[in-house]
Batch of 2 targets.
Target 1
Amino acid sequence: MKPFTCIQASCAAASSLVLAVAASAQPGQAVGWGLDGGHGETIPPPGNYIAIAGTDSHSYAIRADGTLVGFGWNGLGALNVPTGTFQAVSAGYPGHGLAIRTDGTLAGWGYNNVGQASPPPGRFIAVSAGSYFGLGIREDGVLVRWGGVIPPPQGTFKVVCAGHRIAAAIRTDGTIAVWGELSFANVPPPPGEFIDVRVVEMHALALRADGTVVAWGSNSYGQCDVPPGRYVAIAAGNGTSAAIRDDGQLVTWGNPFGGWTQPPTGRFAVLAAGWNYGLAIRACPANCDLSTTPPATNINDFVCFLNRFSAAGALSPPEQQSDYANCDGSTTPPILNVNDFVCFMVRYAAGCP
């Protein structure tokens, strides 16, 4: 069994091909959990990030300024990340990485014995690094493969996930395609409209447009027993599954090996999985103005929330006020005051930079 990685960005809000690779709009602190092989692949460097990815023993993240950072094992040059600014990143086995630059072109680095780190020219909207191969979606929705031996299906797509000898993608109509050398590739995926998919050797997760998650394949560790609820992001690993609920909470299930089922607490916006570990970026719902320099949360954010969610005005009836803005739930005028700002910072700024 070999590790895998998919494009690690929350695709739950994707309503077009471009948005399908969008990272978090709000930078946040990155955290890791689960089994660390001793190389530090579960320990992101300090800072604020918008995207993150993991595989067997190396990981990547995109800083708030768009630059790349690698952490973990560097035995095959996996951490020799390129310079420049990026919008998406993916980590491949055994030691290569792929990323989309802010101009839409691809970059590859690390182990390149069969061309897996040599992506084609052109502009792309999605990329995924698998075991010894890579997959990308061009601006016209066409899937392209390099390295490896798994040809992609015909058609147009908006999300792609490369695994070990198997891959999955979501067509522009929302249906799922799975292909590869493994027998699991012959198992029909569930019908319906989907906005994200993750595939491992023997199980897969898919996120429907309505926020529900579907799993299929091997259930040897309960990795297909999806907890009920609505979700905004998914990830899968070695008999493991994870998702971010619509309230930002992390949920994990499946193989408990290495502490997988003990994720960090708090609110999160971006989720990724390595083979036996997880990575996530904390959400900062209080950073309304999307500032990127500390302190990210301040009085400007409260004013932003008042303007964005309380257009009815501070003296309007409580039922017309935003739950965010009228944080303390007061019912007598003035509805919005300094108490709401204090409440706002305590309730929504946890984990913000």
Note: Residues 1-22, 311-322 have pLDDT under 50 and may be disordered.
Target 2
Amino acid sequence: MIGFMAGAGMLTLLLAAIGNKKDEICKGIQIVMDNENEFYFLNEKDVRQIIEEILQGKPEGRPVESFRLHEMEKVLEKSPWIRNAEFYFDNHHILHVVIKEKKPVARIFTTERRSFYLDEQLGILPLSVKRAVKVPVVTGFPDKKIRGRSDSALLRQVKELALFIQKSSFWNAQVAQLHITPTKEFEMIPLVGNHTVKLGQAEELEKKFYKLLVFYKEVLTKTGFNYYGTIDLRFKGQVVANRKAEVVNIDTVTLKKRVEILLSGSTIQDVEKRQEIEEPGKTKQKSVNSKRNHETVVINNAPKLSAETENSGPKGKTENTNQTKMINKKAKEGIETARQEKLKNKADKKPKAVMPSMPIVENAEEYY
């Protein structure tokens, strides 16, 4: 008898709870974009608009039991930019919506000028008419409707290269564009300087960009960022650079300031504004060297910079005339040694050179 009464009491409470559940209404909605405080393609307003389209009206004031939360999650996840959607009600009848978007790592332009974003999982994302995402730009990708394994491997290289650039405030500010050649190698177009950097395959990126940073600090801060037309990082332990016919002379002090500002994470606009304030009305002068249009600079085993030097940016060094003459004399001896080595190693196709402490020009070649 007692058990029957207890069971009847439980049934009464259950029916009352069900009745109360039917009377519960949604009192509000809270949307969270789980993107580390970064809005990519959608924001809270966009998500709410999608939810109101699903419900054909506002969620507030609707019975809680009328919400088909799982179905709503699936609808939102059909969006090309949403990776995961989660819906739930709390004890106060507030609808919580947690959205995690797909993260673009690069914007790609094909050879036929089509464009799309590449995400972390090598997925293809369409462009958004509302906003553009600031990521590295890659041009020259093969235009194919059906992509094969080679294209997947190329996309993987694009991802690795783009993520590497984004990790560094300096390279993120300096790299204006990446280009894929017909042989599926990568070239980099810088923001500061009128030259092309040949990267080859997207491998050993730490070593390649370290060599380029050394070259920037030790060579281009003296010659100017427009002195060379191409800088080749494809050779192990070497940097090979070809000089252009037209050379732009830039004051080395100003150039070093530009590099220091870039190393601090500033943009090129900051560089130009600061230069205009410090040196108003100053213009660049151009000079043409008709005798040596295409020189090659070879850096063998570039010296490793300390962490302090690498973070602080390039530092200028002043030299008097006597020191320069002594260094040039040693450099000439180094060039002669290099020539002897080339005669002994004709079978080796890679450029060989010694590394004197300072450059000397002779027979259209410079050795650093």
Note: The two ends are 102 Å apart (CA to CA).
